[in-house]
Amino acid sequence: MLFGGELPYIPGMELPVETVTQPQKPTSRTKPDWIRVKAPNSKEYANTRDLIREHKLNTVCEEAACPNIGECWSKKHATVMILGSVCTRACAFCNIKTGRPDLLDPHEPDNLAAAVGKLGLSHVVITSVDRDDLEDGGASHFAKCIEKLRVSSPNTTIEILTPDFRAKQGAIETVARSRPDVYNHNIETVPRLYAAIRPGTRYFHSLMLLKRVKELEPQTFTKSGIMLGLGETKEEVLQVMDDLRAAEVDFMTIGQYLQPTPKHANVERYVPPEEFEFYARMAKVKGFLMVSSSPLTRSSYHAGEDFAIMKAERERLLREAA
Predict the structure, then answer these.
(1) Counting Cβ atoms within 10 Å, is residue 216 exposed (0-12), middle (13-18) or buried (19+)?
(2) Among 296, 294, 273, 271, CA closest to 24
């Protein structure tokens, strides 16, 4: 069963019930101070942008309108999006274009490897659109990108964020056996909201994917994340944590959902920073090696630094158990 039991009381885990179980809709479209960011304008940001253009790469930073793009690109951090820029699904939270997908670019693995080498990345994050039109959902393309990076940048750690590969037999195995350092697949929201927020996907299939990766490659770190502010309750968020731990997920990210356009799902509530801190404490209590929980947290935000912390934590636990 992918469900956890009750936790013992732990000092510091309290959170006023009214701040979680009685979400309030925003009274205006003005974002609260804690999620406002500066417009990107640094020289380093421009250099990263130009390099991405030079190698004809797509990034989820741009396509998904990530609020952290200025900070990340100024540090030469970018999440590369392979398999084109058009998705075959239409999730209610996502700003990536939906429609007829692009043809696969056979040179993309080489271009990706060249860009990572020029940026001198110690950690790279690779994601993709859903490609239900492809027989393997794009799994072999992921594997080729990882293979090229292992050769061209052997000291770079590789994190991937994949779609669910639903109904694509053997796809999960193909990607997992290419042995990325981190395999991320986002749960995105609580199961009750799937029909409205994540149509075309299944909550328990995503849990199964994460569990299967761990079965195939126990040394690969697994990672998943959810968005808050879509109408979920505290109890539902805690249950998702239990389900992810039952699937042996190592790293959980928790961030605020922001509505990309008026056509997308509404923000039901702006979750305050102290509530994110509560969820961070609870995730650690439940056994995650690493948790990133804040209004601006996104799947790949500070991914390299977080990977180093997670790796050190696992090594510490192994030493203590020896």
Answers:
(1) middle
(2) 271
Distances (CA, A) of 310 to 199, 277, 288, 304: 32, 18, 9, 10
**Shortest CA distance to 63 belongs to which of 147, 127, 134?**
127
Query: How many whole angstroms separate alpha carbon 280 and alpha carbon 274?
Result: 10
- Report the relative pairing of strands 58-59 and 79-82 from DSSP bridges: antiparallel
Which pair of tokens denotes residue 200?
């075309």
Q: Which residue has the tokens 């696992």?
A: 314
- pLDDT per residue rounded down to tens, the chain (322 residues): 343 443 443 444 444 433 443 444 554 457 787 776 565 566 666 666 666 666 666 665 555 455 555 556 565 566 788 998 899 998 888 878 889 998 899 999 999 999 888 888 888 999 999 999 999 999 999 999 999 999 999 999 999 999 999 999 999 999 999 999 999 999 999 999 999 999 989 999 999 999 999 999 999 999 999 999 999 999 999 999 999 999 999 999 999 998 888 999 999 999 999 999 999 999 999 999 999 999 988 877 778 888 899 999 999 999 999 8
How is 78-147 classified by DSSP, letter by letter? -EEEES-SEES---TT--SEESSPPPP-TTHHHHHHHHHHHHT-SEEEEEE---TTSTTTTHHHHHHHHH
Q: Look-up: residue for tokens 């860009």?
A: 115
In one letter, which amino acid is 244? L
pTM: 0.84
Cβ-based burial of 36 (10 A; exposed 0-12, middle 13-18, buried ≥19): exposed
Taking the C-alpha atoms of residue 100 and residue 319, their distance in angstroms, rounded to an integer, is: 51
The DSSP bridge partners found for residue 125 are 79, 159
Please provide residue 235's backbone torsions phi and psi, each rounded to the nearest 5 degrees: -60, -40
Write down how long the chain is.
322
